[in-house]
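Researcher: Good morning. I'm working through a list of sequences from a screen, and I'd like to move beyond sequence-only analysis. For each chain I'm collecting a predicted structure so we can compare shapes side by side. This is the next one on the list. No need for commentary yet; just the structure.
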Amino acid sequence: MPEKWVDWNKTTRSKDYRGSASFATFMIIGPTCFFLGILFAMFPYDFPLLWTKDPISAAYLDQLETHLKFIHQSPPLIARVLSIMVGVGFLGFFIKLFRASESNMLFDGASLVLYLIGVGVYVANIVKGLRLVSAGAWTRDDFDPASASSLGRAGGDPLTGGEIILGREDSLKVMAASNTILALVLVGVLVLQAGQWYAERKDNEEYEKYEKSGAAGGPSSPTSEKTKKKQ
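Model: Good morning. Structure tokens for this chain:
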């Protein structure tokens, strides 16, 4: 990888290293936990759709649809706060990946990929589903449940830009599955950030061990050997 993107001389003990204890890490973990909290609040609604074999009643679907309409039709301030939180997460990644070290590229680069996947799932599935629910796509006069249940007979719909609209229950199941996928992706971001902290801890332990052995007259540490070669 070009040196303009990665500083191969930067280590976990460099002054300009942005590791797990940097403020940029909290800019990543904060929004991630924030969105996981929202998804956890949605879990009681998603559970009957995905994780039980009991028949789903129409009253439950009506209740879920009302809840989703309330979320989508909330004041614009709510959507702005969500957008700001997404932006804060991206800003944290960009700060950590500016003149990144090898550790940053490994852990933060992979975390950014997962974060992008999460944003893609949110925009492509969840936002689109909320728009359909809010617009009452399944209660319109021109909606045909028979054609919606058959992909071969279904036609395009202007609400989705010409894409096929599934039935109400299937669409709500897609949204619930998207919430689960998004939660797993965000947990992956937290796991990678925790992995970076663990790797830094082990690296510091190894460095201290070499320093102690060097002070006792033993072999010098790899870092000091590299410094001597450069001098």
